[in-house]
Every structure is written in structure tokens, then in C-alpha cells.
């Protein structure tokens, strides 16, 4: 059997008639940018998060950059961010003109260390914090939010991996200034291309985001500030709306697959499945096991059996060359440095068949102890 880490072909096969009808409809009316489907998608997306406003943009990265800029974060500012994430969580800070301050993670959930974030906020060392809900599980903001409010520190949630996740029943976006999502094809709801959105409950922020995504245009051919050209194409909005309707079923399927992987790993006892924090609904965007020193050995074992795996993430962000001389770290980074050597991600997408999941579980069980 050959099991890819991820494939989009099966999803398209299932949704093809609806997707093609959406394309035909948008291409026929011809408003391929700023079409009515974009506004409809924004309304539906905001409703999904239980928030009043969503501003669709060209990518998840742009969502982060524009959110920081709209909040007034730029040159001379410092922004705290985890060292365990996709590069965009931190490169967005540089693109907004500010400096990332990397923090270490705790070893169980892979989230930024709360104590380090609180210290940076309370010491006035950062003007904003990017909270990454890594792998699809939300981070607790109940202590960070009041500390940030007291200090005038902005919070941006990077929910690129956490669409459909909740914490005590609440979606991302309710304990921050702005929340960013990504519709990269590899995310739980993916466009046929790039896409992203910023969610907020602040109408003034919504207005500024809408200007910043299109040249600072304030209407009537007046441009009030230097902006980007970062639009979600109408056809992408139309197709994303179709996919959003599948979100609950797709999440349920990923959770069922995760439960079977969990059982296979728990039967062994020497490989730790992803831990779920009390109160959290994990969307299992990524299924990240903590293997330990035999990580590479297990990856080869699975590869020999036709099962693709990957590592999230291979290198801590504070060690990436692009940030050299353009970032700071909050103390030593021992946990993330060790963790990236121990983790391995299994294939995780809703179209995996039961036979494929069983096959992966069997290969995990057969890996010599
Ligand atoms: C994917 C991702 C992004 C960037 O989103 P794009 O749409 O690819 O630009 C940012 N942060 C995290 C955590 C991501 O996983």
C-alpha cells in the first residue's frame, strides 16, 4: 500500500460537481475580484467563528502582516512568537517592519511557554504577541489576555492550523485583537491556490484591514495610506464556502482517525500520541507524535512500508537563517531544540480509508520495540 502524507485529489473527486458549478457561475458573471461571493464568504466565516467581522485576503501570511499593520505594529516594535511553527508566524512580523522575539515551548502540547510570554508582556519588552494555535489545538489565553490588556500589548492569534478548534466551546478570536486563518491547500479548508482572512470584533480594525488589503483605498479614488494588493479571488471564496460546509464532517473524520492512531500508540507505550488539553477540541490538522531518539528510524520503517511522514518542524524558527540578526530570543531555547528531534507527523486527511488507517496502525504496532 502507498499512503501519501496528504493528497487533494480525493477531495476534489467528491466535490467536483459543486466546485465546477461555482467556477462556472463566477466566471460567467465576471466579477473575479471583489465579487458578491467574497462578501458572502466573509459573512459565513465570521459567523463560523462567532465574530462580527472577517476580511478575506490573499494568504494566511498576508492576514498576519495586515493584522499587525492595522494594529499599528511596525518598525521599532517587538513581537513575541513561538519558535515552533511554520516560518510565516514570524516572517510576518519582519514583513510588518517589527522584530520577532522568539520564546521556547513547553514539551507536551508544543505551545509557547506561557511564563515567558507573561514575562515579556509584563516587562514591557514587546508591543504585541502572536499566539499560534499549533497543530490544531488552542492555547489558553486566560492569563495572557488580561496581562496584555493591562500593558496595552496587542494579541494576534495565528489560527492558520486551528479552524474548527475550540477551547471550552469557544473558537479562536474571542481573546485577542485579531485572528488570522489560512486557506493554503494543505490546511483543513484549502483554496485552489492561496487565501487567508483576518477576523476581528473591532469595526474600526475591519475598516483599516479592508483599506490595507487594497492599496489603502478609502473610496472615491482616495488612498489614505500605503497598502497591499492582497485579495481573495472571487472564485476561491465561492469554492471555500462549499468546503466550509464540509468542515464538521471532515473534522469528525480526522478525530476518528486520530483516535485509532492514539490506540495503536498507546498499545505500544513507547511513542507518545498528541496530548489534548482539558477543555480543548483538537481539529487534528496535524497528528504529531513524540517518538524520541528513534524518530528517524521510525520514519524509515514507515517509508519502507509505503507510508509518508514528515516533521513539524525540522528546525526551530530562531535558528532559521532568514531571522539571523533580525530577531531576538527570550533566554535559552532548550525545549524546542530537543523537541524537533523527537517529533514525527502521520498522514492525516479525512479521505484516508479505514483500510489505510488500519495499515498505518499495523505498521506502528509492528515497529520493533
Ligand atoms: C500555513 C500557516 C501560515 C501561513 O499561511 P499561508 O496561507 O500559507 O500564507 C501561518 N501560520 C501558520 C501556523 C501556518 O500553519
Describe the structure.
- The protein is of the alpha/beta class and 369 residues long.
- The chain has helices at residues 9-29, 36-49, 60-70, 88-95, 114-122, 144-151, 203-212, 234-244, 247-268, 295-304, 334-339, 354-366; strands at 53-57, 78-82, 99-103, 128-132, 154-158, 166-167, 178-182, 196-200, 280-281, 287-290, 328-329, 343-346.
- The protein has an eight-stranded mixed sheet, sandwiched between helices. It has a two-stranded antiparallel sheet with strand order 6-9. A two-stranded antiparallel ribbon has the order 10-12.
- Strand 4 (128-132), helix 6 and strand 5 (154-158) form a beta-alpha-beta unit.
- The longest helix has 22 residues, at 247-268.
- The radius of gyration is 21 Å and the shape is globular.
- The protein starts with 8 loop residues before the first helix and ends with a helix.
- The model has no long low-confidence stretch (mean pLDDT 98).
- Bound molecules: pyridoxal-5'-phosphate.
- Pyridoxal-5'-phosphate (PLP) is lined by residues 59-61, 85-86, 88-89, 132, 158, 160-161, 182, 184, 194, 196.
Structure characteristics:
369 residues, alpha/beta, binds pyridoxal-5'-phosphate
Amino acid at each position: 500500500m502507498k499512503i501519501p502524507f496528504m493528497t487533494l485529489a480525493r477531495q476534489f473527486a467528491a466535490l467536483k460537481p459543486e466546485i465546477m458549478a461555482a467556477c462556472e457561475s463566477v466566471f460567467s458573471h465576471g466579477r473575479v475580484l471583489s465579487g458578491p461571493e467574497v462578501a458572502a464568504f466573509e459573512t459565513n466565516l465570521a459567523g463560523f467563528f462567532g465574530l462580527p467581522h472577517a476580511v478575506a485576503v490573499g494568504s494566511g501570511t498576508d492576514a498576519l502582516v495586515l493584522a499587525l499593520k492595522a494594529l499599528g505594529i511596525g518598525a521599532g516594535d517587538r513581537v513575541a512568537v513561538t519558535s515552533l511553527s511554520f516560518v510565516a508566524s514570524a516572517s510576518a512580523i519582519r514583513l510588518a517592519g517589527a522584530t520577532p522575539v522568539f520564546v521556547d515551548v513547553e514539551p507536551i502540547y508544543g505551545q509557547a511557554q506561557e511564563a515567558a510570554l507573561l514575562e515579556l508582556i509584563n516587562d514591557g519588552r514587546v508591543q504585541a504577541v502572536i499566539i499560534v494555535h499549533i497543530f490544531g489545538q488552542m492555547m489558553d489565553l486566560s492569563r495572557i489576555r488580561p496581562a496584555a490588556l493591562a500593558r496595552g500589548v496587542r494579541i494576534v492569534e495565528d489560527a492558520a492550523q486551528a479552524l474548527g478548534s475550540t477551547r471550552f466551546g469557544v473558537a479562536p478570536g474571542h481573546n485577542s485583537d485579531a485572528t488570522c486563518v489560512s486557506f493554503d491547500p494543505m490546511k483543513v479548508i484549502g483554496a485552489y491556490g492561496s487565501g487567508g482572512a483576518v477576523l476581528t470584533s473591532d469595526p474600526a480594525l475591519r475598516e483599516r484591514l479592508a483599506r490595507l488589503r487594497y492599496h489603502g483605498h478609502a473610496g472615491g479614488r482616495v488612498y489614505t495610506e500605503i497598502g497591499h494588493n492582497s485579495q481573495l479571488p472571487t472564485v476561491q471564496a465561492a469554492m471555500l464556502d462549499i468546503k466550509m460546509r464540509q468542515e464538521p464532517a471532515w473534522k469528525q473524520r480526522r478525530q476518528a482517525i486520530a483516535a485509532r492512531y492514539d490506540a495503536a500508540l498507546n498499545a505500544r507505550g513507547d511513542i507518545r500520541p498528541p496530548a489534548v488539553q482539558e477543555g480543548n477540541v483538537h481539529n487534528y490538522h496535524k497528528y504529531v507524535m513524540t517518538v524520541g531518539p528513534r524518530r528517524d528510524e521510525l520514519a524509515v520503517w514507515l517509508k519502507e512500508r509505503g507510508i509518508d511522514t514528515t516533521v513539524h518542524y525540522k528546525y526551530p524558527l530562531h535558528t532559521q537563517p532568514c531571522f539571523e540578526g533580525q530577531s531576538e530570543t527570550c533566554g535559552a531555547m532548550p525545549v524546542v531544540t530537543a523537541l524537533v528531534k523527537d517529533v514525527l507527523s502521520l498522514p492525516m486527511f479525512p479521505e484516508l480509508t479505514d483500510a489505510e488507517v488500519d495499515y498505518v496502525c499495523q505498521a506502528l504496532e509492528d515497529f520493533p520495540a
